[in-house]
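pasting for the record
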Amino acid sequence: MFACSFDVTLQRSEDGGEKGIPKVKVKVINSQTTEDIVIDPFEFMKAYSLIKDEMSRLSMAIDNEREYEFKEHNDPLNALFDNTFQLGTVTLFPEYMLYGLATAPDETQQDIKNISAPYNNVGKLEVIWVPLEGADAEEDPDYMPEIEEIEELIGQSWTYKVKIMQAIALPLITDMCYIQYNFNGELFTTETVEQGSSNPEFTYECVHHVESVTQEFLDYLSMPFEVDIFCSPDVKLPKAKVGTSNPVVVQSIKSGVPGGSSGGSSGGGGGGGSEGSELEQLKKQVNDLTVENTDLKQKLEKAHAQIAELGGGSKLKDGLESAKIMDAELNA
């Protein structure tokens, strides 16, 4: 039986800074699997409109004794839950690469932080940086440049290979997943993997080469940077279709009662088997969507108003702490 619940949450700003103003998002929770995703408000509204339109078409088809079936991509579970979203972020500290060091064995697996409140750990990402002698050099586990002072690097070349191996113990089974990061002003993206796994493997390698190191680049490596994880959940649709061929759905719409039961019926007639158990609450869920949609609009307006008040800079000393406080208020 399909069921989703919704809430307003906050997402860290893309600049990754502590003072970044968070963004308002809608959290969609699949009650069957307890998995959740975070989508933009307009994506929620689009899915809600699709489902509402499909219900109108289905009702008209029943009234006119015509056949009609929900398009597969408009199935409530697909429309609301099958979306690509940013799951989390890994913060890397590359300062050790100023000294020609490789990633330490005990630091190859880094925590993935949830992109939305409460910003908890949602898995690990295996990332390894290895120094190379040059842009075309082969990987040598014994190679390590001799660097006593990082200022010696200015005017010299700098080369590292990054290897993104695997995301580990993600909180959902992913249908597709990819990694994206910005290094020294350039955006890099792994291939999109489709493995149906909560431990997707990437085997991504990329050589980053700087022909002539500048003080600006030294400053860049002295600061942390982020690696973002994007994915979409592996959605399994129920066997029973939403349409006029399903007697439970038809009776639910005709009677206005979930499951198609009329108040005085006690026979439990045909169509009440597994298909009924999966779709008995379809009409109720659409009605619940309407109620939750109104509630979410009110929460979104309140969240945007609070963010606007915090936008002055002097009031927003710690973006992450502010986001946590705001999220607590919203969920209360």
